[in-house]
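S2.1 Query sequence (tRNA-dihydrouridine(16/17) synthase [NAD(P)(+)]-like)
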Amino acid sequence: MPKLRGEAFWRETLRSAHYVVAPMVDQSELAWRLLSRRHGAQLCYTPMLHAQVFLRDANYRRENLYDEACPEDRPLIVQFCANDPEVFVQAALLAQDYCDAIDLNLGCPQMIAKRGHYGAFLQEEWDLLQRMILLANEKLSVPITCKIRVFPDIDKTVKYAQMLEKAGCQLLTVHGRTKEQKGPLAGVASWEHIQAVRKAVNIPVFANGNIQCLSDVEECIRKTGVHGVMSAEGNLHNPALFEGRNPLVWEMAEEYLEIVRKYPCPLSYVRAHLFKLWHHTLQVYQQLREELAKVKTLEGIIDVNRELKLRCQEEIANQKEGEKPKEGLPFFHWICQPYIRPGPKERCRENGDSGTEKGVRGKRALEEEEDGNSELLSKNKQKKKLRNPNKSFDPSLKPKYAKCDQCGNPKGNKCVFNMCRGCCKKRAFKEVADCPGHGLLFKTKYEKSLSWQHSQRGIQTPEISQSGDAEVGEMAVLKEAGAS
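Output structure tokens follow.
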């Protein structure tokens, strides 16, 4: 049976899905997907999987896809990050029997994607992307889809989308932010870019960005004309978003934890989900935040949820008539609701002392440096500075390491060749020499080998010259030993 393409693929295989849960690393696992499907989601993606690891590691395949096979979890799209056509296709071939399509991640903007050279950091390499999609479209029995971020320029974004369509992409998800728009700098996603792409291509398009409630979904479809809308952060804070409901946070937690009992996942995933579900409530009940962070078992997490439920119910019982939500929230903190990511200045205020009022606080503040340059440091560096006030991040004060004569990496301090370990190993092997500084003993082991061989034959072992070069007689013995 020929595989379906474009509109037919979206209509028949994906069942005309309008409400889509995004691929989220360590957050769109099976248990969360099933919870989201119970509450309105019509299509889900797996977390982003690393194609090279998926190809070589059977445990990784089993833990991330094979063991999660579930009839309720369809339609399902498996997403990979990759930068090599052959690796991408070979990994996809191992996954295609467990899903309805394979998605190529071209949208991840994180530093890990930059270091690994995948995600949004491939968006300028159009020749490579064409080869990857063309090969996947040819070899796979399921359609190939892509998730992208936009360029600042709308025309370039449109040409980018058309190139992917021409290469064989059968469905395109467009996140309306550039790769630079992330974290505190995320800002507002551009639906104008998404609308332009939708008009320019003949394949189905999903929109991603600015989705906090069902009315946002409906407005996005109306303004952009897309086939469906994908949600990530909005879904994490309210898994009933696509139902248009705002349930009690502990009810969603109870339901999720029951699914986790049946379909277990790492406790770190569960904890991360509850930190988002309970985000506003944990600003009030700070002790529960600490308990959730420390708990080591699923039963322990269930106990924390039970305690949170009791405290919220007590607060509801004592609530005064006409009382309104605090901190400018649309609903009371015990109700699932959007989390608006603060900008850089707002985040500073949120983390400052002025953010505390009547037991409600922002994230733990990082102390300002004495020289007032803390804004120039990343959050991790600020934390290191708190632990060690004398620590300096001035590049000019960093120790200078002597470089390897061969490759320029730092050399070993005691290396006899003035090289890094990798280069030293190659040279010591080639010259049958020792380097005690790197623990490489090729010469010593060679001598012991010759000694043992000659002792077996009753032949006296010839000596090795100090230079490490074997004498003619030694080479003859070595060749004889190799032949035997």
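The chain has 21 helices and eleven strands. The CA atoms of residues 172 and 205 lie 5 Å apart.
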